[in-house]
Amino acid sequence: MAFTCGMPSISVQVRLLLVIAISTCFLITELAVGFKTHSLALIADAFHYTGDLLSFVIAYLAQKVQQLSSHISSLSSYASSSPLSSYSAS
Ligand SMILES: [Zn+2]
Question: What does the pLDDT read at residue 21?
């Protein structure tokens, strides 16, 4: 399902991938600048950001699992449908 909000329709998975890509760039930049300038604040924030990035990855994987499980359940309901159950469902 896509949330539009007046913007072009982009799926949740594509949005999560964009967030993961941008966050990865931000994390690498923060780590590089933090170690280059010996800024403990930047390094600490980069490690904090690692947790955020991990949560985005988990959200993306949850979306994939949900998509896969709904696909499998639709396949299994199609395969296990008997004439009686299809009659009672209609
Ligand atoms: Zn955070």
Answer: 97
CA of 45 to the centre of ligand 1 (A): 8
Computed on alpha carbons and rounded to an integer, the radius of gyration of the chain in Å comes to 21
57, 20 in Cβ contact below 8 A?
Answer: yes
43/21 Cα distance (integer angstroms): 19
Residues near ion ligand 1 (Cβ under 5 Å): 52
Global pTM value: 0.69
pLDDT tens-place string over residues 8-45: 788 999 999 999 999 999 999 999 999 999 999 999 99
* Gap between the Cα atoms of 17 and 57, Å rounded: 8
* CA 19 – ligand 1 centroid, Å: 13
